[in-house]
Amino acid sequence: MGFRGVAALVIVVGFVLNGCSAMQERRWSYCAVGGGLLGAAVGAGAAGALVNEYEAGNGGSDEEVVAAAAGAGVGGAVLGTLLGHMICDPQKEAPKAPPLPVAAPRPAPLPKKISLSADALFDFDSAKLRPLGKQKVEELVEGLKENPSVKVLVEGHTCSIGTEKYNQRLSERRANAVRDYMESRGIDASRITTRGYGEAKPIESNNTAEGRSKNRRVDITTL
Fold first, then answer.
1. DSSP assignment of 28-42
2. Which letter does DSSP use for residue 106 in this model?
3. pTM of the predicted model, to two decimals?
4. Residue 151 maps to a domain
5. Which residue among 88, 104, 138 closes a domain?
6. 3-state SS assignment for residue 194
């Protein structure tokens, strides 16, 4: 094989190497440039010397020597470029995977029914919420904000002290007071239904102070 054939073979090998995955994992940078220049110089110099020695003994011309050196220089430049790239050009940064979507936490379910002591929510014979009463209702308000599809039924109850008519009216006013506070805290009125039952639905006997205290209550049921 002549020296031109050798140069052509070097170029072919270079292109084969160019398809390797190792080539594709690096960024083209200064190493490739430096390797190409060095490869061109070494290839041209070595080929020129060898061809000159070979052709001189066989009557080769200067043009043939120059052509062979040029071909080897090109092959050396290609091979040097690829080797420089493979050896020390910086590797490409692996593409960052997109962050996985974070599922929004599900709101805690509201209890089906809450029974609040009217003695804790209101002063005696009053329908105005006390600070402690507002705090109790506020806990439910936060749950309703986290569960916007939930509606509530607010029911007022009293003990048997006083007339039946008066107790009925007091139970309604207390249920409405709880509703009004919820609305003031951002809960839409369409989500709240109120009812007053007066002394009609006791859960304990009204014959004892303890029983009457338990009967004075506001029941809140989620719908």
1. --HHHHHHHHHHHHH
2. P
3. 0.56
4. yes
5. 88
6. strand
Q: Is the same domain home to 73 and 166? A: no
> Which amino acid, one-letter code, is at 25?
E
The boundaries of the domain holding residue 67 are 3-88
The answer to whether residues 134 and 205 belong to one domain is yes
Q: 140: buried, middle or exposed (CB in 10 Å: 19+, 13-18, 0-12)? A: buried
Quick check: is 99 in a domain? no
Taking only the tens place, the pLDDT of each residue in 1-40 is: 444 544 454 554 554 455 555 555 666 666 656 655 665 5
Return the sign of the alpha-carbon dihedral for residues 160, 163, 168, 170. Answer: negative
The pLDDT tens digits of the residues spanning 165-178 come to 999 999 999 999 99
Q: Which two tokens stand for residue 136?
A: 């109790």
Helix (H) or strand (E) holding 217: strand 217-222
Q: Report residue 60 as tokens.
A: 């080769």
